[in-house]
């Protein structure tokens, strides 16, 4: 059995995770990153291809007659022509729910950053402001408790549910907006505009679909409180970047945090680059060491199940 890993760099930038676990399945060819024009050649005569964002198109599959299995180091699978893969008898499996804890943790890192203002006070201290304070305690930058604040969660999958649990533990009021009403949900469920109106913090955990593309736009931003904070760790195109930049620069909303952008790596032309009160992280919410190790374990489990004739996490 031959395996080709097409973009291992996206899983292990610093080499902290090895491909040793994959070697149980056969000969492994590891490519750090693959350009579109290199995909078919890099797969070669492999039976199994593993990738994160590399496009596996009809043309690629036709050029690789030995290919029988595509495994994704990701939950999303829009980079694979899954319908054509099914026609050719190629199994495609994704890796779901590996990043729930890490993404939820980062959401609250953002929320606590905004509400406790640790970075701002650290900068103030280092600039000598506490030394010049007339009193023992120096607090010109407003902070606030999370208890009693309304946290609106758009998307109620595994990550949305975990965010709700943590928010509830902080004493926040939870409002959920989701495509289908969940069963046994202990929180208020409403439409997205009503959730946005109520939110002190609104966080997005929905998949990218035609219905959610551009969901964060001038209409939604226009109903939010001017003190509200917006967080996006879902997919970049869920946000209309020009509309969000305008809302931040005009003070329509107070602040935003984004871990994903419409183009990744970030385009120097994005209107969000210099937007006021915006913190951008480079798609890191999923990237904790334990999370990536879990991801590799899930991918290996998927291959094992496929070889045993009972594929798990099959998307086609």
Describe the protein in words.
The structure is a single chain. With 316 residues, the protein is α/β, with parallel strands linked by helices. The chain folds into 2 domains: 2-97 and 289-307, NAD(P)-binding Rossmann-like Domain (Rossmann fold, 3-Layer(aba) Sandwich); 100-280, NAD(P)-binding Rossmann-like Domain (Rossmann fold). It is 30% helix and 15% strand. The protein has 10 helices and 12 strands. The strands form 2 sheets. Strands 8-7-6-9-10-11-12 form a 7-stranded parallel sheet, sandwiched between helices. A 5-stranded parallel sheet has the order 2-1-3-4-5. Strand 9, helix 8 (218-223) and strand 10 (229-232) form a beta-alpha-beta unit. Helix 4 (100-116) crosses helix 6. It is elongated, with a radius of gyration of 22 Å.
Descriptive keywords:
316 residues; alpha/beta; Rossmann fold; 2 domains; 7-stranded parallel beta sheet; 5-stranded parallel beta sheet; 30% helix; 15% strand; elongated
């Amino acid at each position: 059995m031959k395996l080709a890993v097409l973009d291992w760099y996206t899983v292990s930038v610093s080499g902290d995770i090895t491909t040793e676990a994959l070697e149980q399945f056969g000969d492994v060819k590891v490519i750090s990153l693959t350009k579109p024009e290199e995909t078919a050649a890099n797969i070669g005569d492999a039976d199994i291809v593993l990738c994160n964002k590399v496009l596996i198109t009809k043309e690629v599959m036709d050029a690789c007659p030995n290919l029988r299995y595509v495994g994704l180091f990701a939950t999303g699978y829009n980079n694979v022509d899954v319908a054509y893969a099914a026609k050719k008898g190629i199994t495609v499996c994704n890796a779901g729910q590996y990043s729930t804890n890490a993404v939820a943790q980062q959401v609250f890192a953002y929320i606590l950053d905004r509400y406790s203002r640790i970075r701002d006070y650290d900068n103030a201290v280092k600039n000598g402001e506490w030394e010049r304070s007339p009193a023992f305690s120096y607090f010109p930058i407003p902070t606030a408790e999370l208890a009693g604040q309304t946290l609106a969660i758009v998307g109620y999958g595994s990550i949305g549910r975990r965010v709700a649990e943590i928010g509830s533990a902080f004493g926040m009021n939870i409002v959920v907006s989701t495509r289908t009403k969940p069963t046994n949900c202990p929180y208020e469920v409403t439409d997205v505009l009503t959730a946005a109106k109520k939110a002190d913090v609104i966080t997005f955990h929905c998949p990218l679909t035609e219905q959610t593309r551009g969901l964060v736009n001038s209409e939604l931003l226009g109903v939010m409180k001017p003190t509200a904070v917006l967080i996006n760790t879902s997919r970049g195109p869920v946000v209309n970047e020009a509309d969000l930049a305008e809302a931040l620069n005009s003070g329509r909303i107070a602040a935003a945090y984004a871990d994903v952008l419409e183009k990744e790596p970030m385009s120097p032309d994005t209107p969000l680059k210099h937007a006021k009160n915006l913190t951008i992280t480079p798609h890191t919410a999923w990237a904790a060491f334990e999370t990536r190790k879990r991801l590799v374990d899930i991918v290996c489990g998927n291959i094992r199940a496929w070889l045993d004739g009972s594929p798990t996490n099959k998307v086609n």
